[in-house]
Specification:
Chain lengths: 440, 302
């Protein structure tokens, strides 16, 4: 055999090596868990999987990372090819879509008889029947920059009593000034040369639902069958948020919303107050270096916030039972305690952590928790969740991947830019929304 | 070689050619033509990706034309964008190519400079422009405010968003410049010299010699530019998400969101079929008129 042939044979054998190494010769059932996230999140997922894989010798869970932007469409492609992972994260707006189309296994008994019960607020329901539980709980709150309040001699927002909308706008006005130090209600104020904005209400589409509730309206009926966004209350709530930038000149313009509320708002260093989700306590604020505080959302008529969080779903398939057991283990607070709960990214999903002193102190009182003010935390994170949080619409309304994510997202941009009124836009798209929530 | 041997040799060669072509033919059929047929078939169905497929005939098309508030907006936006971008890039690239074709100092350097945008990663380019255009903190508005003007909503108004995005497309048209340059170098010097002796000024020479000699290249650039600009999607995906209104709701973006974000695969396919027909029509118009304005050297026509 000459050298060339020898080399060829060696290379061919080398190519076979990984195939041999990947063989599932360990006698375990191998299942796949899919998720989205950045490198840090991938590492924390891997840590949790390692712990599970080490805890028993029957099942081996392998991670499958999919980019967030294409997550749902990738899963759908896998489903069409009959190649779905055994379990995985599911975007909130796709939960009812997956469950109604028979892709997800029934997990309604997952926590039956358990000591730790997931809160009702984060239970996905299809026509009233539970179909899945979020892995954590997140609510929308108000973040504020303490230094900007101090500089304006303005008292901090109360953790007990939320601002009324008018108070919120008034405070925002006092915190807004142009390059000559003039406020929006002063003569000579130049809205084209604003140096500091008082407020930014995150207009990322799904977060806008809370203002309809706050104004005494809703986007959808609680059985998920009716579109109510054309009520005067719901329409007015959208217009009021848009007017913060357009009429009051207390907020930066954000015509094409992305998941960028912190960046446009308080994180830019030029905005004093911003509404956003509680996961920001862990994902953003530790790196922002802003002396911040938290408060309940301003209330138009009702004191209300919405809760939401992604779901870890079990997909139907040959290893459904193994996946079910893993998901049950994985979505316990304990399994993600250090990586996700104590870092401030997840708030617990079980009532125990909100209703008992012991449970509350376990996370909120923990030294590692990024938000250090326990008393404020109890009011704004715990009591606010227990007393004022309602499920976001995708917990009970089908096809939000069409309604909120597509139709409303595109249409509302004309409201944010000030080209059309909320009333005009909502009335125009109302028939499309009604048609879209009808289940195929 | 005998005649028979020649035939056998030819046949062998043909067989070898087919064998070698096979992978690309299979590829073309499997990744281009079959999916095209499939998406046409899919456009006659209602399908959400996971559930049952329901045959609904032409309903998707009827809906698009009669009952979709965004479809006509999307169509117009796409045409407006393609129109401005194609004309803009052809004129811009022609001017730059003419300048670069002269004996300017550091010509090679400038050629690279104008070609560079074309090879930059698209996403990076669009994110850079996003910062330039931004309403609150953008560079353009910073300059405008310094000069005493008021901020302009480059991407935040439905009237300005399409021209603003077209400007990026024009800026990105470095590939057209390169092709024009190659064409300019092929314009025979003798024509110019003869015209010069006859007393034609440079403007006359440009209109009567350069442009006619360049028409085949202009045609090619026009065609390529038109097809790619009608299929625009990246600026909507990376910058504007289709808005405001339908200001950047390009047809490709619409079909992408309808099919892959809203899971209306049949509906999205119908849009793709319409886009295909639209491109076919424009290409057809371009080809059918080409005989009357393209000048081929060695051609006898006036």
């Amino acid at each position: 055999m000459n050298m060339k042939k020898l080399l060829a044979v060696v290379l061919c054998l080398a190519m076979l090596l990984p195939v041999i190494a990947l063989g599932e010769g360990d006698g375990r059932v191998h299942i796949t868990y899919s998720f989205w996230g950045n490198q840090t999140e991938a590492e924390s997922v891997q840590a949790a999987l390692d712990a599970y894989n080490a805890s028993q010798d029957k099942v081996f869970v392998e991670p499958m990372q999919i980019p967030n932007e294409q997550y749902t469409e990738t899963l759908v492609n896998y489903a069409i090819a009959n190649q779905l992972p055994d379990c995985g994260m599911v975007n909130e707006n796709a939960v009812l879509y997956f469950s109604r189309n028979g892709v997800m296994a029934d997990v309604s008994d997952m926590f039956a008889g358990e000591e730790l019960q997931p809160m009702d607020c984060i239970t996905f329901k299809d026509a009233g029947v539970p179909v899945g539980y979020s892995s954590s709980n997140e609510i929308l709150i108000l973040y504020y920059n303490k230094d900007m309040f101090d500089a304006a001699n303005e008292p901090y927002p109360s953790a007990d009593t939320p601002y009324t909308w008018d108070e919120f706008v008034a405070v925002a006005r006092r915190l807004t000034f142009d390059e000559n130090g003039k406020h929006p209600d002063e003569e000579g104020f130049d809205p084209g040369k604003i140096v500091q904005y008082g407020a930014f209400v995150n207009n990322w589409t799904w977060q806008m639902e809370v203002w309809a509730l706050s104004n005494g309206g809703a986007w959808f009926s609680e059985d998920g069958n009716e579109v109510l966004i054309n009520s005067p209350e719901a329409i007015e709530s959208i217009q009021k948020v848009a007017d913060l930038a357009l009429v009051e000149h207390v907020a930066p313009l954000n015509v094409i919303p992305e998941d960028n509320g912190i960046g446009v708002g308080i994180g830019s260093g030029t905005v004093a107050m911003t509404t956003d989700g509680t996961w920001r306590l862990g994902t953003d604020f530790p790196n922002l270096g802003i002396n911040y505080g938290i408060a309940p959302l301003p209330a138009m008529k009702e004191e209300v916030t919405i809760c939401t969080s992604g779901l870890t779903g079990v997909f139907k398939g040959a290893h459904q039972q193994e996946a079910y057991d893993f998901v049950k283990w994985y979505t316990r607070e304990e399994s993600n305690w250090e990586a996700l709960v104590l870092t401030g990214i997840w708030m617990p999903k079980s009532e125990y952590y909100y209703k008992t002193e012991e449970g509350i102190n376990a996370w909120l009182g923990n030294e590692a928790y990024p938000f250090k003010d326990l008393e404020t935390g109890k009011k704004v994170l715990v009591d606010y969740t227990m007393n004022n949080a309602k499920s976001a619409c995708w917990y009970f309304t089908p096809n939000t991947q069409i309604t909120t994510n597509e139709i409303l997202f595109t249409a509302l941009q004309s409201v944010w830019s000030g080209e059309r009124t909320a009333e005009d836009v909502i009335n125009e798209i109302y028939p499309e929304l009604v048609e879209a929530i009808v289940v195929d | 070689m005998s005649k028979r041997g020649m035939i056998r040799y030819n046949r062998q060669e043909t067989r070898a050619a087919w064998l070698l072509l096979l992978p690309s033919v299979i590829g073309l059929i499997c990744i281009t033509y079959l999916p095209m047929l499939a998406s046409f078939a899919l456009s006659l169905f209602s399908w959400n990706g996971l559930g049952e497929m329901k045959f609904i005939g032409l309903d998707n098309y009827i809906r698009l034309f009669t009952n979709d508030s965004k479809f006509y907006g999307s169509l117009l936006t796409t045409l407006e964008y393609a129109g401005i971008s194609v004309l803009g890039s052809i004129v811009y690239s022609m001017i730059i190519a003419l300048l670069l074709n002269r004996k300017v100092p550091a010509r090679g350097f400038f050629r690279a400079v104008f070609y560079l945008p074309y090879v930059l990663p698209a996403l990076a380019v669009y994110l850079g422009w996003k910062w330039l255009y931004d309403f609150n903190h953008g560079f353009f508005n910073y300059v405008i405010k310094l000069a005493g003007g008021t901020s302009v909503k480059f991407l935040d108004s439905s009237a300005l968003v399409t021209p603003s995005l077209s400007l990026i497309a024009v800026w990105l048209s470095g590939n057209l410049i390169v092709i024009f340059l190659a064409g300019l170098q092929n314009v025979p010097r003798t024509y110019h010299e003869a015209a010069e002796i006859d007393g034609a000024n440079s403007w006359q020479r440009f209109w009567k010699i350069t442009i006619p000699c360049m028409t085949p290249i202009i045609f090619y650039n026009l065609l390529m530019s038109l097809v790619s600009n009608l299929q625009v999607i990246t600026p909507a995906l990376s910058l504007t998400k289709g808005g405001p209104g339908t200001g950047s709701y390009f047809m490709c973006y619409m079909l992408y969101t309808q099919a892959f974000k809203s899971h209306k695969y049949g509906y999205g396919s119908a849009i793709s079929v319409i886009l295909f027909v639209l491109i076919a029509i424009f290409t057809g118009i371009l080809f059918s008129t080409s005989g009357s304005w393209i000048f081929y050297e060695g051609d006898d026509r006036e």
